[in-house]
Amino acid sequence: MGFELQPTTEPGRRFVAQAEAHARDFATRADEHDRGATFPLENMSALRRSGFTAATVPHELGGWGLDSVLDYAIGIARLGRGDGSTALAANMHVFRTWFVARAWRASQASGEPAAAKRSAELLRGVAGGEVVLAAILSEAGTDHLHIRTEATRVDGGWRINGRKAFGTGSPGATVLGILVRYPGAGGEPRVALAHVPATAPGVEIKHNWDALGMRGSGSHDIVFTDCFVPDEDLADTGPWGRYTERYLAGNAVGTLGLVAVFLGIAECARDTILETIAARGSAGRHAVQQGVAEMEIALATSRAMVERSGRLMDAFFARHGHRMPPLAELHELMLDFQCTKAVVTQQAIVVVDRALTLSGGSGYLSKNPLSRLYRDVRAGPFMQPFSPYEALEYIGRVTLGVLEES
Amino acid sequence: MGFELQPTTEPGRRFVAQAEAHARDFATRADEHDRGATFPLENMSALRRSGFTAATVPHELGGWGLDSVLDYAIGIARLGRGDGSTALAANMHVFRTWFVARAWRASQASGEPAAAKRSAELLRGVAGGEVVLAAILSEAGTDHLHIRTEATRVDGGWRINGRKAFGTGSPGATVLGILVRYPGAGGEPRVALAHVPATAPGVEIKHNWDALGMRGSGSHDIVFTDCFVPDEDLADTGPWGRYTERYLAGNAVGTLGLVAVFLGIAECARDTILETIAARGSAGRHAVQQGVAEMEIALATSRAMVERSGRLMDAFFARHGHRMPPLAELHELMLDFQCTKAVVTQQAIVVVDRALTLSGGSGYLSKNPLSRLYRDVRAGPFMQPFSPYEALEYIGRVTLGVLEES
Amino acid sequence: MGFELQPTTEPGRRFVAQAEAHARDFATRADEHDRGATFPLENMSALRRSGFTAATVPHELGGWGLDSVLDYAIGIARLGRGDGSTALAANMHVFRTWFVARAWRASQASGEPAAAKRSAELLRGVAGGEVVLAAILSEAGTDHLHIRTEATRVDGGWRINGRKAFGTGSPGATVLGILVRYPGAGGEPRVALAHVPATAPGVEIKHNWDALGMRGSGSHDIVFTDCFVPDEDLADTGPWGRYTERYLAGNAVGTLGLVAVFLGIAECARDTILETIAARGSAGRHAVQQGVAEMEIALATSRAMVERSGRLMDAFFARHGHRMPPLAELHELMLDFQCTKAVVTQQAIVVVDRALTLSGGSGYLSKNPLSRLYRDVRAGPFMQPFSPYEALEYIGRVTLGVLEES
Amino acid sequence: MGFELQPTTEPGRRFVAQAEAHARDFATRADEHDRGATFPLENMSALRRSGFTAATVPHELGGWGLDSVLDYAIGIARLGRGDGSTALAANMHVFRTWFVARAWRASQASGEPAAAKRSAELLRGVAGGEVVLAAILSEAGTDHLHIRTEATRVDGGWRINGRKAFGTGSPGATVLGILVRYPGAGGEPRVALAHVPATAPGVEIKHNWDALGMRGSGSHDIVFTDCFVPDEDLADTGPWGRYTERYLAGNAVGTLGLVAVFLGIAECARDTILETIAARGSAGRHAVQQGVAEMEIALATSRAMVERSGRLMDAFFARHGHRMPPLAELHELMLDFQCTKAVVTQQAIVVVDRALTLSGGSGYLSKNPLSRLYRDVRAGPFMQPFSPYEALEYIGRVTLGVLEES
């Protein structure tokens, strides 16, 4: 019967099937891009051509109408089996598009035609394959709540200055979605999401990503120098330094996709070592059976967690419709998701570790894909928010109802 | 929103609600039965009066029509919050009844009116509250595949001799479902399931259960001495010493219920210590937050695993209808379930451990329910099949396709 | 060759050999005292008769001259193999005596004949078997730094009021060593150690110890009501609420003995299950070998940690002679010991857990000593200072040099 | 006071001090050799010049007279702080030399002047810095007990054919110590240790080491083609396919050195992140303190285990003098050491993992040494014998006294 995660909607099945096809292709180039730390532009092109990048665009705007968060995460996990770097980059587009689609529906429902029109234009661009988004969220030395990139008021819009880090997917994106700090009406710091063309004057992708793993993810630093953004491309998300509805919703959904990548990497490690065992004819050895069992348990756990969080999110957003859910409920959703993140990113590491152990040393050689997976999978616990120790603090505080105290 | 597991069917919601009501009541007596190692007959009576024991009897036969394995497991988990011993005992009735109901439908579908009639009678007895079943599966010094209790041919039926152990729920049962070894047509050893009235001549419940925990579960030894069983109450389940369809299906479903008990115990430990923390006003302490977070992660993991296995089983039996699924598929189902069993019974122990740690020593006192939960929860890994190390071997072998080799 | 810990001095060898002899005897009564939660007064008498309680009294004063902290810990571990409760109780005498002996030498070295005389008297009483000490350190709802038992100035001495908890060994002690808060010269709160005869007016041992495990340890509450202590029996140990040299030295040495008890319990669990395996003839089973290996690894780890901390302490006190070591160095010693405590108390739990798993259910029965060891061993992480999570904070802070910040 | 391991003998102190000096130097080139997967010949030259490679040569033959296995392991650990690859390579020389020195003494004691003379020559070469040994033990697809490299009888000696793998240190060695299979007097397969000049005809170092980590260790494949070895350079070690005294003694001592390398790597990771924390001023954060505490506990455990095994080995060889200890005792020594290996290689991984977590993402960048340590440290569990799962089997079997059964 097979126990891999299965999509629950029709667009989800299409998305997952397409992801599997892409993964087979991407797997053939993953080691090469890893060695050179090159961004797989051809992969991104393939994702645009196949319509994969249009999956979360509503039917009415030319997309596949993928709405289920669970199905989206499953598709990203499948992509991660082929190439974790590309899956990571693709996620930064797919989840952003999912939110733009949601904003489009909300604008329509609430009678905001101008906003709806802008969202629709962006989504049609995505559907047509001309637009690829990348959500660029991190900055060195601070967290997502305390963004330092600054937007200053100028005539008709804003000037943006700052430096982003871990700009995953940026080399393949046409539009960057970035968080900026800007002064509210009373001068108080607020946060906004700005959509900036990747080729806009003042945007410089530093092409400096050189890391232990996820080397093909293009996670470069990006510098913004007096970069102009018109009013309509900058949308307030709430007060700076505080948890907001958009922060929580965005990070729960978007980071679930990131977490799913590591499930995909773990599944790839498992398949890789099972092939090795079959080739060696060593399935009868106790030590082999034990290691395989530990992998299966870790994988079953990871799948159960991704599935549960995906289902909870689908039910959650279905219940709230186009309205933004209240903060307290979003914290509970985030709490649950942080449990999933903690477990899945850790268990994925366990799976790769056991595969290496079972390889008996051959997996340690550079030519063996396991040596790449060992490096890629360690990126999991870094996915924000939160760091592993901070996640414990967050989970504990929300459970105990003392989030705001310190 | 709350993250406890939620039933997915109407009968399931009724079952779970009733379980919660019972749990509140049972909790008031759990410590007393624990101290005296007494079987809570009043709890079993309450379960009969409320219709809880009739839940898995089909509507047509006067029951609640509970069919979902997931919902059944959730209900048992809820019961486990109040009293693990009673939940364990109740499970041995509920899952057996579930299988009798399934057999009844299969008999009807395949045109076996005599078998259908006998099943219906039993189920009507359950629905009316006169009949309580207990599946008595274990024997000391052997495993479920190699049962030693012997059925010998006599006129019109069989004489049963042997000794069962861990006879959970036996003091509250009117009918015992036991496995026996008997000679097949060619003299080869086979296994059968016999239904024996608890008061039949030759049945002796030893009332000798005195254990570390689960002290109210009435898990006595039961001795069968020349106990007569008529032909129609003994049903072949397959060759002795071999995995059979009935063995796998029965143990997957029945043991999921057992595993759910330990989720319930963990949830109780969590609620207990959260109350203590609230009373102490110590929620602001880092150490407290960390411990609580570790409990939440372990609970989220356990819930996700129970939910996933329950869903898989529901989909599995729905797909196969009344037919017995093929052995190979049942092994995959069992493999998945063994992952769940390994994780949940272990994580439940983690939750109770953290609760004890957070108690700061007060949880170690006999008067604190945590001291009982610490003893009860350790029964989890003993639930059969398999022992923890054997489970690794089984999972490894099934995954590698070498189950039969040794 | 055997890998159990071996004493390093001549008095240590005598102490350990005597401990082994006692352990064999105590083991025969451990289950009985556990069931009844009775204090094994006959064990304490045996320890007095054999001279075991006089081991840390200097030769010159009639004792065995046991000076090595490592050897003392090994002897306590051996005792713990026979009966954890008695070992715990014995520790509260032996380590206190060790410190009185140290104080006696320091008084002699520094020319304080009055203090030296009082110490010598006490030690001679111990050597003669008339005196048994018990250090009573804990109070409910606070930690060892923030003692609430109060000493108030009266003519010629102090009146003590307060309630102690976890008064391990109190039923067998003739003299209780307790910490009290008292007003310093400027009225500021300070801490003192008072030696109080167990039969003094105003001392009431509540005989209320009823706990999950360590049921024979006599860890009763003790209430002090206007209990008079003459000036010479109350010795200042430093400011209240602050780490002091005496606090750190006392708790490092004394708690190492407590930790050693859990090593002994683990060794007992290991021996118990190895006997079972031998009786069953199941040593050839892979699952058995795996479980045994996990026990061996956990035991080797625990022994290595106890040995390392004991050696470090012996070298440490040898280096400092009779002088009290400086606070900063004592914090480093405590840091190292907290690592040992964290690992040993946890690994001891692992050993008992594996033994239970290997027992296959029989270990869960009350008549099997493993069921007692499972309850006893869980006391380990409660040993003060610190709680497991607080220990992480302490270790982190000392390592990072920010102990005083908060 | 500091808790790093301290040598126990005078030559040991010299060795460790020299190792520390080398480590500071090697650290400056470690990243460069890692990037290029180049063997640090200049490091090996420095080790020869300083006399480090002569440390285990007896005083009488011009060396430092380092005899303590513990001290040798500590020195290797120190070297590992600077560059794990070089430490690994150095170990393959130092421990081989230790055994040659032991053989020299045994030959003298037993009156074998020819053998003593040859050993002395080799050792004098080492003392003079002309000779560097490398023990080359592994072959792909088999274990150390079932070597496939073949020695065939020819006039005056043997012709060797075969392929070795993981030939750590080979580019810097002048003499390779390799295991070969050869026919005994009755034609039965036996094992011998052959010393082969690295430049001998028929020796080809493939210079093909390209791995995940330990990239500067020169662990190339080495092919032997009709390579001639004179009789006196080939010494029988016992029957092929069976545990022998030499196998156990050699692997216990030699692999302890390998294991020590990973302690050194862990210590380096710890120091690296502590510097980062100090630079960031983040020592006051709870999450930081927790992570640091987990590192300290893992390091304390690793140190305790290395120290304990080293002490046990020193006492063991001291007890047996020049005689080869009996097989049964060597199995117990190996059992203890396998516990150490399991724990230290695993805990070293934990330390590096926590350091990475504390780095918050910056440690994942290639320019951060932590990213190299993460790759290097994963080599630990591959050190032979045994693989992690096989070690469990070995430990279990030896403990249970059923090593020979299967």
Give the oligomeric state of the chains in this entry, treating copies of one chain as homo and distinct chains as hetero.
homotetramer
Please state how the strands of the largest beta sheet of chain A are arranged side by side: 1-4-5-8
Question: What is the count of helical runs of chain A?
Answer: 10
Largest sheet of chain A: 4 strands, mixed
Determine the N-to-C terminus distance of chain A: 49 Å
Number of strands of chain A: 8
DSSP strand content of chain A:
5-15%
Determine the fraction of residues in helical runs of chain A and give it as a percent range: 40-55%
Given helix and strand content, the structural type of chain A is: alpha+beta
User: What's the pLDDT, averaged over the residues of chain A?
Assistant: 96
Shape of chain A: globular
SSE pattern of chain A, N- to C-terminal: HHHHHEEEEEEEEHHHHH
CA radius of gyration of chain A is: 21 Å
Structure description:
The structure is a homotetramer of 406-residue chains. Chain A has a four-stranded mixed β-sheet with strand order 1-4-5-8. Chain A has a four-stranded antiparallel β-sheet with strand order 2-3-7-6, with no helix packed on it. In chain A, helix 7 packs antiparallel against helix 8 (327-359). Chain A is built from ten helices and eight strands. Chain A has 406 residues and is of the alpha+beta class. The model of chain A has no long low-confidence stretch (mean pLDDT 96). Chains in contact: A-B, A-D, B-C, C-D. The interface between A and B is large, with 47 and 47 residues.
